[in-house]
Amino acid sequence: MVADIEDDTLLDYDILKGQNGRPADILLSQNIILLDGMEIPIFQVRKIGKTRRVVVAENMTVPGHAEAVVSVYIERFEADDDDTEADYVVEPDQLFKERYPLQMATTLVNLNEAPTCKVRVLSPYPTEVNLRQDAEIGIAERMEKIVSVLTKAEHQAESDNLVAVRRITTRSAEVKVVNDEPNGKYRSQRI
What we know:
Blueprint: H1 11-14, E1 25-27, E2 32-35, E3 38-41, E4 51-56, E5 60-62, E6 66-74, E7 87-92, H2 94-99, E8 103-104, E9 107-110, E10 117-123, E11 129-131, E12 136-142, E13 165-167, E14 175-180, E15 185-190
Antiparallel strand pairs: 1-2, 2-3, 4-6, 4-12, 5-11, 6-10, 6-13, 7-9, 7-12, 8-10, 14-15
């Protein structure tokens, strides 16, 4: 069957026939089907996918040997505004792991708390890494049920630290000065 149809439609709609054998007129621009002189409304239903894209909200530089809090946008749909429990788990995607020398913490976020969500990334290497706005860095998947939360806040000593970037220590930096008496020289020794 060959038909000159300007709009993309499902095949089932293309072959609808009325009582007199005439095919139905499909008017997608008006969201109706004309069948035997009757207007049948078309409701377009979009299935919301299981995973959503996570993109960087603004340009950011993550210094070497540092932890950073990154603002991200999570793909949203109109139905999210009515969802009282919009809890999602944000994880790095494969492209993020291949492209950036960073580690991302898996984070539980609620889409309806703010326009952007926060995730933590860690730079274990000495080089700084640039994250550009709209760069896709992860995926978010809906949580059906939260069984328990281990902690609702960070360590008490960190509650006043509102800086987005913090230095991390990957190994002991203590250095001990040792006197080599036979040579009369001093040398440093890492502890």
